[in-house]
Amino acid sequence: MFRKKKIGVLGAANSGKTVLLTSLLWHLEAFSPEKFHVGSGQVGINDFEYDKKHSLWFNYPLHKEIFVNQGGWPDKTTDYAIAKCSYRRTDSIWQHDMTFIDIPGERVSDVLIWTSENYADWSRQLSQFWSGNKLIQHCMQDFVNNLKGIDINDSLSESNIWDYLVAQYKNGLIKLGKNYSPFITPSTFVLTADGKTIDENLSGKEVEDELLRRPIWEKGDFFPLPVEWKKCKNITLNNIYKKCKANFKRYRKEVLKPLYAEIDDCDNFLVCVDIFNILASGPGRFYQVRGEVDNFFEMIRPGRFCRRMIDIQKALNAIKIGKILPNSVQAKPPKIAFVATKSDMAYDSDEKNKLLKLLERLVHSATNTSYVNSSFFTCCSGRSIIYDYKSDKIVFLKEVDSDGEGSRISEVHLPVDKWPVLPDGWKCESDWNISLYREFTRPRFPLCPGYGEPPEQDNLDRLFDFITED
Ligand SMILES: Nc1nc2c(ncn2[C@@H]2O[C@H](COP(=O)(O)OP(=O)(O)OP(=O)(O)O)[C@@H](O)[C@H]2O)c(=O)[nH]1
Ligand SMILES: [Mg+2]
Description:
By secondary structure, the chain is α/β, with parallel strands linked by helices. The chain is built from 14 helices and 10 strands. A hairpin with a 5-residue loop joins strand 3 and strand 4. The longest helix is centred in the middle third of the chain and has 30 residues, at 235-264. The two termini are 15 Å apart. Guanosine-5'-triphosphate is lined by residues 11, 13-19, 73-74, 76-77, 104-105, 272, 341-342, 344-345, 380-382, 384, 443-444.
């Protein structure tokens, strides 16, 4: 007898999804009641098994090995991956079968392509989104102006106009990237369908040149266009519209469908948000994450039929009949755990409270429905800093030297007043000083507790309880 659940792990690139999933699986596998409290704290986890049969299985053993043998973090995710495991709990007779879906964060920016009704709807919604924020609008302004300024009586050929618009759209996306707002869609511009990212060793100008050389999507570029182009009498504009529309449809089917079909099929979701990175990036990133959460919420909001079922279930629960129905026929709203990741960087309980408030305020508009069961968490999946109360210093590891025989790592003790303090709320655009938060985004090493032991976690166990319990 078993219970099954499928959980989508979502969030922007670098938000901490893969580390969270790796740490969670590891704590289940090497379960220790002192390090991972399940349920009341008395519950044990046994018989953990990891299933590698799926062709796109999540390479948990490799991620773990990087922690253990290299003292590093897992690699960036370049394609979606499926983590299937089973275990038993000492407080239950069931075998629990859990499936987690890890995705490359870049694809989250494509949620609007997936959720919009068609190409025209996507074009309309995307330009609406751009106009909602000054910075984003500024980045895309040249592209938008050039669309309006295209002279249909000009002698430019269709392919000239096409190339011109592709270049303009790419320039806009590059500007977004430069302004820390990677709302880059179609996302294949920065992470190709076969998983190629931009070479990390390239510098600013080289990255830009490399991006300008790349297509938006290898199989056919597309970008949003005004719906008037569809109906207009000019055959050139009409053809360009048709071409974008056809490529949009194909992109949905070939790039997004496999991944989003998995997400559509999930019971519950973890949405990872890196608040530290948003603070260090500024308003563009803030609006991007909020926009993506809103779009994603629209996607998982139960349809009208399911909402009615949930209402019936709630009425039955109110008269205490609902709970005696078999689990399989109970209609439940999907659960969403919004997670402020990397919470070790909020070094004490006051900072952690602020972190939670920032998360709640960021996603507030999306969570305002009783058809979704949402909850908020701060979580550390792999500690990389410690606050030493005695010396009032922040301690972390730093790579100091590479002498050909491997690198040496030393400890840094930073006075706590040199560590950024979280704000009490989100700043308006003019008061937002990103330089105050730069320290948060410096790469750091995980502090491995002991050879082969799972990384030190905080709240990952509470998160596990929420997302897996019925
Ligand atoms: N301090 C700290 N850093 C973390 C923690 N989790 C992740 N990180 C850092 O965040 C980086 C990105 O984490 P990943 O889990 O790879 O991010 P991701 O969301 O899977 O990113 P993509 O694969 O690009 O979508 C890691 O390389 C670490 O540097 C944490 O709990 N604490
Ligand atoms: Mg990842």
